[in-house]
Design a protein that fits this description.
The complex is a heterodimer of chains A (about 475) and B (about 100). Chain A has about 475 residues and is an alpha+beta fold. Chain A has helices spanning about 15-20, 25-40, 45-50, 95-115, 125-135, 170, 180-195, 260-290, 305-310, 350-360, 360-365, 395-405, 415, 425-440, 445-450; strands at about 5-10, 65, 200-205, 215-220, 225-230, 235, 240-250, 290-295, 315, 320, 330-340, 380, 390. In chain A, the strands form 5 sheets. Chain A has a 4-stranded antiparallel β-sheet, with helices on both faces. In chain A, strands 4-6-5 form a 3-stranded mixed β-sheet, with no helix packed on it. In chain A, strands 1-2 form a two-stranded antiparallel sheet. Chain B has helices at about 1-5, 5-30, 40-65, 65-105. Chain B is built from 4 helices and no strands. Chain B has one domain (about 1-90). Classes of the chains: A alpha+beta (about 475), B mainly alpha (about 100).
C-alpha cells in the first residue's frame, strides 16, 4: 500500500495568526483595514479564480486530507450495486417480499397507535409536519412544484411509499386536529418556521378582506372548494375561512452584488422556495384534517394587502410591503386559505409608512422613475395595474417593468436602498427603528444619516461572490442576523 | 472574511483592553491619591458606554458588508468620545497638578 500523503489544511493562515497575536487597540483597526482590503480583492476572470488557493476546499485545522479513506476498500473485489431498485425499500429486492410487508404493516400499526395515543413527538401534528417536510416538495409523488389550487396532491404509492408518507387523520383512525384558535395559530407559526416561513400572520376572511382576493375567486355553498383552470374558475367553500400569510424572505447577502446577480440569484430563487413552502403548508394542513387552498405565489390575491392586514409589515412608498424586521427584502407573502380556525394577528404601526413620507429614497434611486415622490400619501389608482381605494403612494408598474424586464439591468434598487433593508448585527439599527417608531420628527435626519453612512450605495460591478471562500457564504444566501 | 469568523476573538480583545484600561486608571488614581468627583464619574461612564457602542457598531458594520458605515461610525462617535476624554483628562489633571504643587511645597 502506498504511503499515505497527509496534508494539513488549516483555516488559520499567517494573516489570521498575526491577527490573533495582535496586541493593543491598533490591532482592531489594522484587522478591519485588512478585511476591507481582502473584500476588495478580485479576479480578472474565472480561470484566475479557479487557479487561486481560494478555490480549494478549506477544512478545519484538525481535519487532515488523506489519499485513502479511513474505511478499507478492496477495489479489485468490490461488487457493483445494481441500483436503488435493489435497496430494501423495494419489496421485490427481499428474498421473501412478505418480510417487507410484515415490517411495513408493523410500522403502520405502531405509527397509527402513536397518533391515536397522542404520543408527544409522534402525534398527529408531528406526523403532519414530518409529511409536509418529507413530501411537500412534490415531484415523484404526483405534485408539481407549483401546488394546484386545492393543495399539494401527494398520492399514496404502496410500492415505493415509505410508511411515514402523507396520511390524513381518517387513515390514522383519529378525528381531525382540535385546538383553540390561539393554539392552532401557535402551532402553525412553529410549523411555518420549520418549513421555511420567516414570519406568519392570520387574517379572517370577511366582507372587507375578501376584497383582497382575486376577483375570479368565487364562494359557493359547497363543502370543499374546487378549481376549473380551463374556465378560469376558482371556488372556495362559503364558510369560515382564514388566510395564512407567510413571509418568504430573500437573500440580503446577495444584494451586495450587482443588480443582475441580486435579482436572478436572490429574488427569483425565493419564488421556488415559496412554492416548495406552499406545498409543505398544504400537506401540513391536510395532514391535520383541514382544507388548504392557494398553492403558489400568485394563486390567491393581493399579497401586499394580506401582508398589511396580517401585521407582517406596513404599506411602503414603493407600493410594496415593508417589514420591521426584513424591510423590503422579502420576496412574497405567500397566502394559503384554510378552514383551520386561527387567532387573527392585527395590523402593525412601527412608524414605517410615516417614515416613507420623509424618506423617498426608493423613489429618488429608482432608475425608471416609477415610484411616486409625493410628500403625502394620496387616493390614487388611476394608472395601469393600480387598485382604487388605497391612500398611499403608487408605483407606475409599466415604467418599472419596462426598465426591469425590458433590458439588461434587471433591478431591485427600491428593495436594496430602503433604510429598513438592513442586516441586524449592529445594535444601532434597533435604536434607529425605535426612533422611527416613536419620534417621527427625526425621520428626515435619519434618512440623511443613512446616505452619509453609505447604506444603499450602488454595488461595485467588480465585486462578485465567485472569489469568496465558499464556506463563508450563508446557506441559501440567507443571513443569520435577521432570522 | 475571516475577520467575521474570528469575531469572538475581537470581542475578547476589546474585553481585555477595557479591563486592562480600567485597572490602569484605578492604579493611577490610587497612586495619585485622587478621588473622582460626580461629573467625572458621569463622564467616565458616558465614555465607556459610547466606546462600547462604537466598538459594537464598528465590528457589526463589517459583518454587514458596510465598511463605510463602520468608518463613519468612528467619525461620528469618536469625536464626542475625544471631547469627553479631553474634558475628563483636563479636570483630573488640574487637580493632580494642584496635588503635586501642594505636595512639593
Amino acid at each position: 500500500m502506498a504511503k499515505s500523503n497527509t496534508k494539513h489544511h488549516s483555516t488559520v493562515g499567517r494573516r489570521e495568526f498575526m491577527k490573533m497575536l495582535g496586541v493593543g487597540a491598533g490591532a482592531v483597526g489594522l484587522g478591519a483595514t485588512g478585511m476591507g482590503a481582502f473584500a476588495s480583492d478580485g479576479f480578472k476572470d474565472l480561470d484566475e479564480m479557479m487557479a487561486s488557493p481560494l478555490a480549494e476546499r478549506k477544512l478545519p485545522f484538525w481535519v487532515k486530507e488523506v489519499d485513502e479513506p479511513t474505511v478499507k476498500i478492496d477495489w479489485d473485489n468490490m461488487q457493483v450495486f445494481e441500483g436503488p431498485e435493489k435497496t430494501l425499500f423495494n419489496p421485490a429486492s427481499w428474498e421473501n417480499p412478505q418480510d417487507y410487508f410484515e415490517i411495513y404493516n408493523r410500522n403502520i400499526a405502531s405509527t397509527k397507535k402513536n397518533v391515536q395515543d397522542n404520543v408527544p413527538g409522534l402525534s398527529l401534528k408531528d406526523r403532519a409536519l414530518a409529511d409536509a417536510n418529507c413530501w411537500g416538495w412534490g415531484g415523484r409523488s404526483g405534485a408539481s412544484l407549483a401546488a394546484p389550487w386545492d393543495g399539494a396532491h401527494v398520492q399514496a404509492n404502496p410500492q415505493w411509499e415509505h410508511p411515514t408518507m402523507y396520511y390524513t387523520p381518517e387513515q390514522y383512525g383519529v378525528p381531525k386536529y382540535k385546538g383553540t384558535p390561539e393554539e392552532n395559530a401557535r402551532m402553525l407559526r412553529t410549523a411555518g418556521r420549520i418549513m421555511g416561513a420567516a414570519d406568519m400572520g392570520f387574517v379572517k376572511l370577511d366582507d372587507r378582506t375578501k376584497k383582497l382576493l382575486w376577483g375570479k375567486i368565487k364562494f359557493e355553498n359547497v363543502e370543499k372548494g374546487y378549481a376549473d383552470p380551463a374556465k378560469n374558475k376558482f371556488v372556495l367553500p362559503d364558510k369560515d375561512l382564514w388566510a395564512i400569510c407567510s413571509v418568504i424572505p430573500q437573500s440580503l447577502w446577495m444584494q451586495q452584488y450587482t443588480e443582475r446577480m441580486s435579482w436572478a440569484s436572490s429574488n427569483t430563487m425565493s419564488y421556488s422556495r415559496a412554492n416548495i413552502y406552499g406545498n409543505r403548508i398544504s400537506v401540513f394542513l391536510r395532514g391535520l384534517g383541514y382544507q388548504a387552498y392557494g398553492g403558489d405565489t400568485e394563486a390567491v390575491g393581493r399579497l401586499v394587502g394580506f401582508g398589511v392586514m396580517s401585521g407582517m409589515g406596513e404599506y411602503g412608498r414603493a407600493g410594496i410591503l415593508v417589514s420591521p424586521q426584513w424591510g423590503t427584502n422579502i420576496r412574497t407573502v405567500l397566502v394559503t386559505i384554510t378552514d383551520l380556525p386561527l387567532a387573527v394577528t392585527k395590523p402593525i404601526n412601527a412608524g414605517i409608512t410615516k417614515f416613507c413620507e420623509a424618506c423617498k429614497k426608493c423613489g429618488e434611486m429608482c432608475p425608471s422613475g416609477a415610484i411616486s415622490l409625493e410628500d403625502k400619501p394620496f387616493w390614487g389608482g388611476q394608472a395601469a395595474c393600480q387598485a382604487e381605494g388605497i391612500k398611499g403612494w403608487y408605483m407606475d408598474s409599466k415604467k418599472c417593468y419596462s426598465y426591469m424586464l425590458g433590458g439588461e439591468p434587471d433591478c431591485s434598487r427600491c428593495q436594496t436602498v430602503c433604510p429598513f433593508t438592513k442586516f441586524d448585527e449592529a445594535v444601532l439599527h434597533d435604536l434607529i427603528r425605535l426612533s422611527i417608531g416613536s419620534a417621527p420628527m427625526l425621520n428626515s435626519a435619519i434618512r440623511k444619516m443613512d446616505d452619509i453612512f453609505g447604506y444603499g450605495e450602488e454595488p461595485d460591478l467588480k465585486k462578485t461572490p465567485w472569489d469568496l471562500d465558499p464556506m463563508d457564504i450563508p446557506l441559501y444566501g440567507l443571513d443569520n442576523s435577521r432570522s | 472574511m475571516r475577520l467575521v469568523s474570528w469575531i469572538w476573538f475581537w470581542y475578547i480583545l476589546v474585553g481585555f483592553l477595557m479591563g486592562g484600561g480600567a485597572v490602569m486608571i484605578w492604579h493611577y488614581l490610587k497612586k495619585a491619591s485622587l478621588k473622582l468627583v460626580w461629573f467625572e464619574w458621569i463622564l467616565t461612564i458616558l465614555i465607556f458606554i459610547t466606546f462600547m457602542f462604537l466598538g459594537q457598531t464598528f465590528i457589526a458594520s463589517f459583518q454587514e458588508y458596510e465598511p463605510k458605515a463602520a468608518w463613519m461610525t468612528v467619525a461620528f462617535m469618536g469625536i464626542p468620545i475625544m471631547i469627553m476624554s479631553v474634558l475628563l483628562y483636563r479636570s483630573i489633571n488640574k487637580r493632580f497638578n494642584n496635588f503635586k504643587e501642594a505636595d512639593n511645597s
